[in-house]
Amino acid sequence: MLSVADNELICRTGPGTPMGDLMREYWVPAMLSSELPSPDSDPVRVLLLGERLLGFRESSGKVGLMAHNCPHRGASLFFGRNEENGLRCVYHGWKFDVTGQCIDMPNEPAESDFKSKVRAVAYPCEERGGIVWTYMGPRLTPPPLPDIEGNMVEGATATAVQHECNWLQVGEGAIDTSHAGFLHFGSLNADDYPEKTFSRYLLVDRSPHYAVVNTDVGVTYGAYRPIDERKNFWRIANFLLPFYTMNPQGLLGSGPQGWQARVPMDDTHMISFGFAGPRRQRPASNGSSSSAPRAQGGQSRQLLPNTTDWYGRFRQVSNLENDFFIDRDLQRSNSGPDGWTGVQGVGRQDQAMTTSMGPIYDRSKEHLGSSDAMVIQVRRRILSAVKAYAESGVTPPGVDEPSLYRLRSGSVLLDNDVEDWFEATRKLRTAFVEHTDLDYSLLGGGLSG
Q1: Is 2.102.10.10 the CATH classification of the domain at 38-135?
Q2: Full-prediction pTM beyond 0.85?
Q3: For the segment 355-378, what is each residue's pLDDT rounded down to a tens digit?
């Protein structure tokens, strides 16, 4: 468990907080590029790390992200005119470019140079793979963007989903592998999946053993299950500072796998930005049944239309107010992919658990077991980085080393006499590497989570 003080330390991310200051040293996903569809399109309210900002795309196509209050008298620039390479406040006509520099003051004398002395709070932005990234830290020259494979390869796509809870609750749910065998797959029967496949191994043994390793930029876990006298089935995944998770989906080495950035809007709301490369066509499998039950129901993450409210982006139809549309009859039946919970879809199931904890869960009340080894180690890793940065100014891990993010996750079979699983899987865990000898028939229905 965490102490109350440490829980507060790593959950609070607003301006001036130790965790928030650490996150600001990194590039942060702020928006989907699609939210600003064209030059001079409507500005968008963006709540990010406790700051109320406006995103806009100016006439040349560049993206700006600046404080929503005009530095003149504080009126919101949301009502401004996005025109001719700048955002103009409609109160007195002051206009700002994407750097925050005031470039026009029509209510001041023509000979005045006052405009050169006024800047709005603005953060540099870069676009890559469908994401608008921003740097909110103190450096005049930002560090490089992280080498995230799913955000860099041709055909990369991006998604976003809002959660009404603290960022860490969602992040910890993603690195808790043992919940998959219950929350997502509790009503599935191992006999419905082909023998000698990952899907069957996952259901036969729902209590894996754990190996957890600190890395240069976070923590990697391997959850393993003996399957016979010679082999172990491993599910390997990562947490990377400051807020990235990689679920153990698919075959290890078959990348690029999906990534998630668990980005705080404020202390009680967050957005999960997902990065993914193009889906590869899997070879015909031997013994993998296309009619095997699937892990995910058809009603997972339906989104409401975005609104202009500070909390109006990427809201899900299912939420605590409607109990995530739980179907008690389906739950009583204990059948099909969603029969364990009665909540349809992996995404909804995860969301129901993490938001039901409350806006910020008090982790001093927990009772953690051996299956929580990854959660425990990630908390230690975060606390260590935050305290080193806050107390001694130590540069947070990975800020200046983008190559540390060249990682993959997934499942693999290893001989049970392998002495160092971490080293044995190093090549398969390395991004941007092609592997042509992978056996996709091992997936056997493709359970993930």
Answers
A1: yes
A2: yes
A3: 999 999 999 999 999 999 999 999
